[in-house]
Specification:
Elements (H helix, E strand, L loop, with lengths): L29 E2 L10 H19 L1 H4 L3 H7 L3 H26 L4 H21 L6 H4 L2 H22 L2 H8 L5 H27 L6 H21 L16 E2 L5 H12 L2 H22 L1 H4 L3 H27 L6 H21 L15 H30 L7 H23 L8 H19 L5 H16 L1
Antiparallel strand pairs: 1-2
Helix pairs in contact: 1-5, 1-7, 1-9, 1-10, 4-7, 4-17, 5-7, 5-10, 8-9, 8-17, 9-14, 9-16, 12-16, 12-17, 12-18, 14-16, 15-16, 15-18, 16-17
């Protein structure tokens, strides 16, 4: 297969690449293209991106979802090994976030980020397959398990390269009027992969250790498809110019010293740091609450449906959050975020009143399994609606602080905090009494809603720049 010519690129390493962010006063080494119709190739790029993000989540959960007695016997692994294979996710995510920010500052950074992520995922799947060709005795040795750990670590490193670039993708490829929705769709890949991850392994394994090799082969094939697409069919940038007039086109890579200075300046933005802290609390509470559903809901079937529909409705919430951020709350993202937090708290309170609590062994409200499931699903919807708003508000807050891509900095800062929170919650979760989480969770979301009102000073420099440039273009025409 021949490699197509990159859209909007002359093929050289210093050719222009569309990146978000930048001060108008820093345009001495940059050009701003005129605003044109968005390239239809954006849908192809989005499809590849969602496939990548979904794969990353599926591969992360491979051994946790497939942790049946048969698979434990296949590798002779215990709960500690399974937990470590899962924990490589946040560890690799934290280590990889700074590199992802740096890569996005390079010419053709978004394209390179997706290509490297696809290569890391394919490498992950290849390494995990190696022990399958060992003898049963050799496969169960600790040295053989190192192949699994290395593979999971590679997959973890790919996380920031895709999870932290959702808003960068939408800024580069999609017009401003649907940018938040595009961010939401891109982010949905992670939620979708998380839901598929826990169903995919058992579906193929069917409690048979002999199907472990088949599972890993199928996932390797899943990794190969986006790898080929990224290296042979992925354009570097839209062929019709920038999807947004405010997306800058650097002509050459930023020096290391300048890059560190600009990233440091953006990272010291107090409002962005407050937003990241709020996002971390949100992620940690959601993780703890969701993980304790089996302990707070007595009926196993009801608990399973609560967890399933909570995850499914998060996908709907992702898209809905992006849509309202593009329409009703276009310049009121702070209000949209507060509304999401408050409605989530209300859904969690109603859920808590419908199940036994620390105060009573009986529910306070008349209840039934469908009612409990409904409140859990609504909580998932409002939990998901906040995610794209956080990404887009972060991009607006950091815009103008750096010429190398506000979306890359803010997105990966959020991912870094989320990974840190996930890692911390792994140690804290066993200390949390199951029933108390139904009191802690709604209280925490009310607190973050108040924190958002007090600590977040919203501004829309990127949208203001787009309007100014659009008016200038109209005058020229």
């Amino acid at each position: 297969m021949s490699r197509p010519q990159d859209h909007g690129s002359n093929g050289s390493e210093t050719s222009p690449l569309l990146l978000g962010g930048g001060d108008i006063g820093e345009q001495h080494d940059q050009e701003i293209p005129t605003h044109r119709d968005a390239d239809p190739m954006r849908f192809w790029v989005m499809a590849i991106f969602v496939f990548l993000v979904s794969n990353q989540a599926v591969f992360w959960f491979t051994f946790s979802s497939a942790g049946t007695p048969g698979v434990r016997e296949y590798y002779a692994i215990d709960d500690g090994t399974l937990d470590m294979l899962l924990n490589w996710g946040p560890i690799g995510g934290m280590l990889g976030a700074p590199f992802a920010i740096w890569l996005l500052s390079k010419p053709r950074g978004l394209q390179k980020s997706m290509q490297l992520a696809s290569a890391l995922m394919l490498g992950c799947c290849a390494l995990r397959l190696v022990p399958c060709y060992f003898s049963p005795t050799a496969r169960q040795r600790a040295s053989a398990h190192s192949w699994l750990h290395t593979g999971q670590f590679l997959n973890a490193l790919s996380g920031p390269l895709v999870m932290g670039t959702c808003s960068m993708l939408s800024a580069v490829w999609f017009p401003p009027e649907c940018r938040s929705t595009a961010t939401a769709v891109a982010y949905c890949g992670g939620s979708m992969g998380g839901a598929l991850g826990f169903a995919f392994g058992p579906l193929i394994l069917k409690n048979s250790a002999g199907n472990t090799k088949l599972l890993l082969q199928v996932e390797a094939a899943m990794a190969l498809v986006p790898f080929l697409a990224c290296f042979f069919c992925l354009p570097a940038a839209p062929c019709r110019g920038s999807a947004s007039a405010a997306v800058l086109v650097p002509k050459e890579a930023t020096s290391v010293n300048v890059w560190f200075a600009r990233v440091g300046k953006a990272a010291r933005n107090p409002t962005m740091l407050a937003l990241a802290a709020i996002a971390g609390v949100q992620a940690g509470v959601n993780s703890a609450w969701g993980g304790l559903i089996p302990q707070t809901v007595a009926n196993p079937t009801t608990a399973s449906l609560c967890g399933l529909l909570n995850g499914v409705l998060q996908l709907g919430g992702n898209v809905a959050g992006g849509a309202i951020a593009d329409t009703l709350f276009r310049r009121r993202l702070k209000a949209a975020l507060q509304l999401s937090f408050v409605l989530n708290a209300i859904a969690l309170v109603l859920f808590a009143l419908s199940v036994p609590s620390v105060f009573s062994h009986q529910a306070f409200l008349p209840t039934s399994p469908p009612v409990v499931i409904m409140w859990a699903a609504l909580a998932g919807f409002f939990q998901g609606s906040a995610d794209p708003i956080l990404f887009e508000l972060g991009a607006e807050l950091t815009y103008g602080k750096s010429a190398m891509g506000a979306e890359g900095i803010s997105g990966n800062l959020l991912v870094l905090v989320w990974n840190l929170t996930s890692f911390v919650m792994f140690f804290l979760a066993p200390m949390i009494q199951a029933m108390s989480i139904n009191v802690i969770a709604p209280g925490a979301f009310l607190l973050v809603a108040i924190g958002t009102a007090v600590l977040i000073a919203e501004k829309y420099s990127r949208q203001d720049t787009e309007r100014q440039l659009a008016h200038s273009e109209q005058r020229l025409n």
